[in-house]
Amino acid sequence: MRLVPLLALGQIFGWGTTYYMPSVLAPALSRDLGLDPTGIYLGVTIMVAIGGLAAPTAGRLIDTHGAARFMPVAPAAIGLGHLLVAAVPSATTWYVAWVLHGIAMPLGLTLAATTFLTRRGAADARRTIGIMTLLVGFAPSAFWPLTALLEAAFDWRGTLLVYGAIELLVLLPLQIWIGRRWTDREPETSAPDPRAPSTEDAAADAPPPVLTGTTRAIAITAMVIAFTAQGFASWGLPLHVIRLFEDLGLDHGTAVTVAAASGAATIGARTLEVAFGHRLHPLTTTGLAITVLTPMLALLGSPLDPLTSAWIFIVVWSGANGILAVLRMTLPLSLFGANAYGTLVGRMSLPQNLAFSAAPAVFAVVIDRGGPTAALWLAIAASLTALVAAVVLARIARPPEVAAPH
């Protein structure tokens, strides 16, 4: 178990100093780099898009050579990116840094870390990936105030210098040490558990169904469509949810308060998944989580009191998406096994990351042209698409243990 917190530490710093960093530093960066806020946040879009484009190749390399060999790429690329912008501040270096951050995504952040845990022990990977994802959920809570404190003390350039130094002097050696301490060159076969599993655990840990040829291709396509459509809404709508709540009639302060509960709801739901998720097969949990998305979105347009609707929406919708972020990594393992896991998830990441990177801009355009209600309908359409794909996936890949009786 010592491995999981150490991996999570690298993930928390990696995401906290990149994806969440502009939320605090954007005003100062905009002033000194000569970019408007849209230009600043374009860096995040570049990171996610590059990460998606590099993911298929990264997945193949990880499966062939092991994740441990590539995880040091993340702190090295992120640290160099921060130092580059701090030393030579300009719009050009800003975007070059985000290209480096994008390369770090599949080779050192989520894909590499989850594949590493899978290769270390596939039987326990759902739990360990869930714990790591739960811990990484604290990244914004930790790094938004930390970044604000550092900026107040050292300005934004000093903040990036500090982050660059931590990545290169602390996290890079840590990742190298992890690779030497816990090898993953070949997927390990988990030793039999001497304890007899419960009925619930046996159902949840059912072996992957035998899927070959066209059936396997359809199952993978359905899974990609489900998670891509769901993620498109979950990445695009939250940036505009405050405006959506205000359009429902909430005042600005109340809208911000309700929206801020999203983080707690996400972490709470992931905690429940880690604690009790083993009682359900990941396919069942995925279906349940996707099923609640559309009703929660429709709730915002219902006759129910706007404040009540907003609270129910933010808790249930954020919680469901928080669980689905974990299942995006663990469901492929449950359905297709540990063999070539990195390659499969890498290929899945390409359309997903491209959709995720485009989502905030697409939702912004829809809101500008059609208002928040149009964005709500777009999210409903994406969630319904995810639901249809999840139903197709469930019919094809349902484990024998939970198959309907004949």
Q: What does this 3D model show about the protein?
A:
- It is a single chain.
- The chain is mostly helical.
- The chain folds into two domains: 3-181, Growth Hormone, Chain: A (Up-down Bundle); 209-399, MFS general substrate transporter like domains (Growth Hormone, Chain: A, Up-down Bundle), CATH 1.20.1250.20.
- 79% of the residues lie in helices and 0% in strands.
- It has 16 helices and no strands.
- It has helices at residues 3-16, 22-33, 37-65, 73-87, 91-108, 110-120, 125-136, 139-181, 199-204, 213-236, 241-248, 252-276, 282-291, 293-299, 306-336, 341-397.
- Helix 6 crosses helix 16 and helix 10 (213-236) runs antiparallel to helix 15 (306-336).
- The longest helix has 57 residues, at 341-397.
- The chain starts with a helix and ends in a 9-residue tail after the last helix.
- The model is unreliable at 187-204 and 402-406 (pLDDT under 50).
Helix-strand blueprint:
Layout: H1 3-16, H2 22-33, H3 37-65, H4 73-87, H5 91-108, H6 110-120, H7 125-136, H8 139-181, H9 199-204, H10 213-236, H11 241-248, H12 252-276, H13 282-291, H14 293-299, H15 306-336, H16 341-397
What sequence of helices (H) and strands (E) makes up the elements?
A: HHHHHHHHHHHHHHHH
How much of the sequence lies in strands comes to under 5%
Structural class: mainly alpha
Text of the CATH class of the largest domain: Mainly Alpha
What is the assembly state of the chains in this entry? single chain
